[in-house]
Write a structure and sequence with these properties.
191 residues, Maf protein, six-stranded mixed beta sheet, alpha/beta, 29% helix
């Protein structure tokens, strides 16, 4: 089986390829010569994932899965949520995004948050979604240099390290994307 993972993010491709069974061939957007910006105009994480997967299927003809991820912070009423990648502006800069979160939380005692990933799979004429959530908290400073995005400021529940201080395999075992991908894989095994 061949599926396109609708992303240009090499880090995401690497994370997911480590989890997908070998009999499933995963192509990136670059592999299918898709270089345009796929629309993400929905107001929910689920909506964006579905929109991206359906766009690839409609315009390129491939069975596809797409993800969207958001960091949801309780004290900020769910922000940055669907705007996580561009929270500090359209430049999508992780350092700026983390700085904005830390600044907004500087007087907050409730630092609880969760990462949420939704994967939408278009297969034949059906679209299914798979959701992974990792609860945790936002640290007061950046810690670690692995991972990407908000990883240096997110400490998962029950752990002393941030995602950025963990190995990729550790993060995949407990992380939001790993959980969503596991649900996707379980579904693909039933086909």
């Amino acid at each position: 089986m061949t599926l396109v993972f609708a992303t240009n993010n090499a880090n995401k491709v690497k994370e997911v390829q480590a989890l997908i069974p070998e009999h499933i061939r995963v192509l990136s957007l670059a592999d299918i010569n898709c270089s345009e910006d796929i629309p993400e105009t929905q107001d929910t994480i689920e909506g964006n994932a579905i929109q991206k997967a359906e766009y690839v299927k409609e315009h390129y003809g491939y069975e596809c899965f797409a993800d969207d991820t958001g960091l949801e912070i309780d004290a900020l009423k769910g922000e940055p949520g669907v705007f996580s990648a561009r929270y500090a502006g359209p430049q999508r800069n992780a350092e700026d995004n983390m700085a904005k979160v830390l600044d907004k939380l500087k007087t907050e005692t409730d630092r609880s948050a969760q990462f949420k990933t939704v994967i939408a799979l278009t297969l034949k004429s059906d679209t299914k979604t798979f959701t992974g959530i990792c609860k945790g908290e936002i640290t007061t400073t950046k810690q670690g240099d692995a991972g990407f995005g908000y990883d240096p400021v997110f400490k998962p529940e029950g752990y002393l390290q941030t995602f950025a201080e963990m190995s990729l395999s550790e993060k995949n075992k407990i992380g939001h994307r790993g959980k969503a991908v596991s649900l996707l894989i379980e579904y693909l095994k039933t086909l």
